[in-house]
Amino acid sequence: MRPKSEIRVAIAMSGGVDSSTAAALLKAEGYSVFGVTMRLPQADEYRESSASCDEAVSEIRDARKTADILGIQHIVADLRKEFREQIIAYFCDEYQQGRTPNPCVLCNPQIKFGRLFEEAHKHGAERLATGHYVNIDYLPGSKRYALRTAENRAKDQSYFLYRLTQEQLARSIFPLAGLTKDAIRQKARAAGLAHVAEKAESQENCFIGDRGYQNFLKAHLPPASQRRGPIVDTQGNVLGEHEGIHLYTIGQRRGLGIALGGPRYVVDIRPDSNTLVIGENHELFTSEFLVHSVNWMSLPGLTEAMECRVKIRYRSIAAPAVIMPGGHSDEVNVIFQQPQRAVTRGQSAVFYDNDTVIGGGIIAR
Q1: pTM above 0.85, yes or no
Q2: Does 360 appear as a known binding residue?
Q3: Are residues 15 and 83 in the same domain?
Q4: Are residues 308 and 261 part of one domain?
Q5: Is 266 exposed, middle or buried (0-12, 13-18, 19+ CB in 10 A)?
Q6: Residue 63 sits in which domain range?
Q7: Residue 107 designated active-site
Q8: Claim to verify: residue 202 and residue 335 sit in the same structural domain
Q9: 17 and 188 in contact (C-beta within 8 Å)?
Q10: 12 annotated as ligand-binding
Q11: Interior/surface letters 134-149, b for 16+ CB within 10 angstroms, e for the rest
């Protein structure tokens, strides 16, 4: 086995406490570590205020300061073009089609663990480490790598990483899997990283900031795609007019502009007719849906029905279900034991066997 000092590891550094602490831990373990920070569009056309631009610049500055304190090399990878073409274009197109995307799910395999590693590899990197809260295992039975949920379940990020390929998993390192946030901050202080130890966590998509996704879409979608259309109930009765289907998501209650004597929610979005369907809360529940573009982790594929737990959004609890092969090789039918609320097209459904990620895909219907 090669000594760690001979293994060149790039740590993806965002300027926050998690990735900074991960860098310190890897160096302490003896790896040959260097930092790499993505330059994304957030500091340019996708952020409006000078404060937001300053924040984006400070992220690179803080990452570089961490690298200086640790005595490691730091590089910046300009991935603005790729991010615009692959992530932001996808984000906008999905909303135009009446779906609710999760850009992080796509960004991780394509940008962070894809293009970013390619840039790091030019500087000798063999492995890529990040500050994600997740474990990784090698399963001798299937001879595959798979993610396992972090010990800190409240912070677990396996949901966002289920699309990583076997090649990407094999070269990934996640140093923070067994740590709490308090422990990470403590280790940052101990490593002399006071400039990041108390930094607040980012809560929004990196390219949207505090503007909100609706304002972002209004600014970046072509006017022709922002058409008003009918709001109907589940019987087809016209109740009002919406401002564009891209501004709504399944389960949404606020902003409908309709008073009906009781709460109403978006229960369906029909892009073909530019129609928004609203209904009562009980109409949001469903037991069965189709998933497409499935990526398998712990298994090479699905040949028969399998019991597992399925998570339909990041903050939801994985619920008992049966998954079955669909009509195509990359499709899976999901049947929950109990109906789940607001199953949303465009979001991801991730399959778990206890704490191991089996795989996942995009909710189709």
Answers
A1: yes
A2: no
A3: yes
A4: no
A5: buried
A6: 4-131+175-211
A7: yes
A8: no
A9: yes
A10: yes
A11: bbbbeeeeeebbbbbb
Q: Are 347 and 312 contacting, i.e. CB atoms less than 8 angstroms apart?
A: yes
* 51 marked as part of a ligand binding site: no
Check the annotation: does 57 bind a ligand: no
Instruction: Confirm whether residue 16 is marked as ligand binding.
Output: yes
Query: Which of 232, 230, 211 has its CA nearest to residue 220?
Result: 211
Say whether 18 counts as a known binding-site residue: yes
Counted domains in the chain = 3
Tokens of 325: 């092969």
- Of 138, 161, 171, which Cα lies nearest the Cα of 8? 171
Instruction: State the CATH number of the domain containing residue 341.
Output: 2.40.30.10
Q: Which of 92, 104, 107, 308 is catalytic?
A: 107
Distance separating alpha carbons of residues 4 and 26, to the nearest angstrom: 10
Closest CA to 247 of 281, 224, 279, 213: 213
Active site residue 308: no
Could you tell me if 36 and 185 lie in one domain? Answer: yes
| Identified catalytic residue from 92, 104, 206, 308 | 206
Q: 172-173 and 229-233 as β-strands: parallel, antiparallel, unpaired? A: unpaired
Cβ–Cβ under 8 Å, residues 94 and 346: yes
Task: List average pLDDT for each run of 10 residues in the chain, which is 365 residues long.
Answer: 93 96 98 96 52 65 97 97 96 95 97 98 98 96 95 92 98 95 96 92 73 87 91 96 95 90 94 96 98 97 97 96 94 98 98 98 94
Please give the Cα distance from 290 to 335 (Å, whole number): 9
Q: With beta carbons less than 8 A apart as the criterion, state whether 38 and 12 touch.
A: yes
H-helix segments, the chain: 17-29, 50-70, 80-83, 89-96, 103-107, 116-121, 166-170, 181-190, 194-197, 213-220
Cα 286 to chain centroid distance, Å, stands at: 24
Q: Which two tokens stand for residue 343?
A: 């199953």
d(CA 169, CA 34): 19
Q: Which residue has the tokens 């590899």?
A: 121
